[in-house]
Design brief:
The protein has helices spanning about 5-10, 50-70, 90-95, 110-115, 125-150, 165-180, 185-200, 210-215; strands at about 25-30, 35, 40-45, 50. The chain is mainly α. Helices cover about 45% and strands about 5% of the residues. The strands form two sheets. Strands 1-2 form a two-stranded antiparallel ribbon. Strands 3-4 form a two-stranded antiparallel ribbon. The chain is built from eight helices and four strands, in the order H-E-E-E-E-H-H-H-H-H-H-H.
Length: about 240
């Protein structure tokens, strides 16, 4: 049986690297254990291979760590160390759990620029990120600003609200709290995570619940299904925020 790249099989757009051939795996993702070709994955620190989908999760998790640590450099300490006196809960804890196994602290990044520098073959993807990232950060900031009056902690409870409405309000408040706690670098990391999802045309069903919820709350347009055919990134008519 011929081994195939999972992302190629699903028609995930190719990054356009010079590393190997499409659909010819050169590594196994250290997080999801999927076979991945050089057009959908990268060998990161500690010789760990990471596919582009898990790379999106990595940026989101790095954003959370940067926001909750006393020390803003995540890979200088073991995972779980030096968290603030108020450890992450709810949505923030879910983001943390995306990369929560031993050794993953070596993969965490402190900025989008560090992430890009460690991926010298991802030029086309990095160019697309740089072209849309600032706009997305501004969009998210405006969305959070619009949400905050609805989820202020001092608002009286609504006795007529259903359990689902109460849960949604709590989720919105968790996201607003997390965003306001983030510095500029962490916000760019979280936005870059969501932008990669758009560029790679990943459907919501392929994402971990935390990122799926965040994308939904922020009205980030996403593909409903994997593409019908594989093509290089940037070819589809994607509505980038």
């Amino acid at each position: 049986m011929v081994a195939l790249c999972q992302a190629c099989t699903l028609n995930v757009p190719t990054i356009g690297t010079l590393s190997g051939s499409e659909n010819d795996p050169i590594g196994v993702c250290g997080t999801c254990n999927c076979l991945t070709c050089g057009h959908h994955g990268h060998r990161d620190r500690a010789a760990v291979f990471v596919c582009i989908q898990c790379d999106s999760n990595l940026q989101a998790s790095s954003a959370m760590y940067r926001s909750w640590r006393r020390d803003p450099t995540p890979h200088q300490m073991p995972l779980g160390a030096a968290l603030s006196d108020n450890p992450p809960t709810g949505l923030a804890a879910e983001l943390r759990a995306l990369f929560a196994t031993a050794g993953d602290d070596l993969m965490l990044v402190t900025s989008v620029e560090e992430w890009a520098a460690r991926r010298p073959h991802y030029g086309p993807l990095i160019e697309l990120l740089n072209g849309h990232l600032d706009n997305l950060v501004s969009w998210i900031d405006q969305m959070i600003t619009n949400l905050e009056p609805r989820v202020a902690a001092d608002l009286p409870p609504d006795p007529s609200a259903s359990a689902g409405e109460v849960s949604l309000r709590r989720l919105l408040r968790e996201l607003a709290t997390l965003w306001r706690r983030m510095d500029a670098q962490a916000r760019r990391l979280l936005a870059a995570s969501l932008l990669i999802v758009q560029i790679m045309q990943l459907p919501p069903t392929s994402l971990p619940p935390a990122l799926r919820q965040i994308a939904g709350i922020l009205d980030i347009p996403m593909a409903y299904h994997y593409p019908a055919e594989r093509q290089p990134i940037g070819q589809a008519d994607v509505n980038y925020r």
